[in-house]
Amino acid sequence: MRLSFYQYLMTLRNLDGNDEVTQFANNAFFDQSFPKQAQQYDEISNYLELNGGYLPSMDVFDDAYRMYLEKMN
């Protein structure tokens, strides 16, 4: 079974990490409305554009999603 993007992102959490993807994972953990079952780029991207104030740039999401796709293939 393929992990959702959120499930994958949670594997990147690290309270001591300071790179942008790790910070994204740490912050997404506290986002109660994050689409936790989503796998599709467009659904997650649309959500983050409206609700991802904790992202310094959508490029961080793009990097994380690229890593997700590589891991799932």
β-strand number: 0
Largest sheet: none
Q: What name does the CATH topology carry? A: DNA polymerase, domain 1
Name of the CATH superfamily:
YozE SAM-like
Nearest-integer average pLDDT: 96
Helix content: 55-70%
General form: globular
List low-confidence stretches.
Answer: none
Category by helix and strand content: mainly alpha
Structural domain tally = 1
Question: Can you walk me through this structure?
Answer:
Helix content is 58%, strand content 0%. With 73 residues, it is an all-alpha fold. The chain has a single domain (5-72), classed as YozE SAM-like (DNA polymerase, domain 1), CATH 1.10.150. The termini are close together. The model has no long low-confidence stretch (mean pLDDT 96). It contains four helices and no strands. The longest helix is centred in the C-terminal third of the chain and has 15 residues, at 58-72.
What labels describe this entry?
mainly alpha, single chain, DNA polymerase, domain 1, 73 residues
SSE layout and pairing:
Layout: H1 5-10, H2 20-29, H3 41-51, H4 58-72
